Amino acid sequence: MDFSIKKKHELHIDVINMVDVFLNLLIFFMLSTSFISSPGIKINLPHGKGDVIIKPKGDIRLYIDAKGAIFFDKKQVDIAELKTALESAVKTAPDTLVIIAADKDVLHGRVVQVMEAARSAGLHKLAIATTEQDVGK
Predict the structure, then answer these.
(1) How far apart are CA 135 and CA 30, in angstroms?
(2) Residue 77 has pLDDT above 90, yes or no
(3) Which of 103, 125, 100 shows the shortest CA–CA distance to 113?
(4) β-pairing verdict for 60-64 and 70-72
(5) How many domains does the structure of the chain reveal?
(6) 98-127: per-residue pLDDT in tens?
(7) What is the pLDDT of residue 70?
(8) Range of the domain at 117
(9) 3-state DSSP call for residue 31?
(10) Which residues contact 86 (CB under 8 A, 6 or more apart)?
(11) Is 9 strand, coil or helix?
């Protein structure tokens, strides 16, 4: 006679592989989402409350750093070069939106110069980029 106790095998689901797959998917989606950023140009945007504008393709984004330097297509330009570039842009799409991302330490007059350059080129849809204002401030 066999009096040995037979062990009952417990079944369990190994979820470690599933967790690995979900973490890889999470990392993939986090890295593949598109963010509007300005690589290489350090801009400290002022705080403000306003409408959120999703940047469609074809819109122009101008950057003005704290020293007053103007960047168009990631290249530093002066006012004359900016006017020329904007005039060529208005020929292809006269209804283009110009988004000006100016550092909060830039003088007001420099931002007005850029706005006037856009208006003289025929671009009348202008927007100023800001960051969201903190609720506690």
Answers:
(1) 26
(2) yes
(3) 100
(4) antiparallel
(5) 1
(6) 889 898 888 888 999 999 999 999 888 888
(7) 93
(8) 47-132
(9) helix
(10) 60, 98, 117, 118, 121, 122, 123
(11) coil
**Residues paired with residue 101 on neighbouring β-strands, in sequence order:** 63
Do 77 and 44 meet the contact criterion of CB atoms below 8 Å apart?
no
Calpha distance 34→57 (Å, rounded): 13
- % pLDDT > 70, the chain: 76
CB proximity list for 7: less than 8 A, separation 6 or greater: none
pLDDT at 29 over 90: no
**Inside any domain, residue 137:** no
Q: Which residue has the tokens 């705080």?
A: 47
The answer as to whether 22 is a domain residue is: no
Confirm whether 75 is domain-assigned.
Answer: yes
pLDDT at 90: 85
Tokens 């900016």 belong to 82
In a domain, 67, yes or no: yes
The residues with which 102 forms a beta bridge, in sequence order, are 64
Reading the block at residue 122, the tokens are 């025929």
- CA-CA-CA-CA torsion sign (14, 19, 24, 28): positive
Q: What is the mean pLDDT of residues 53-68?
A: 78
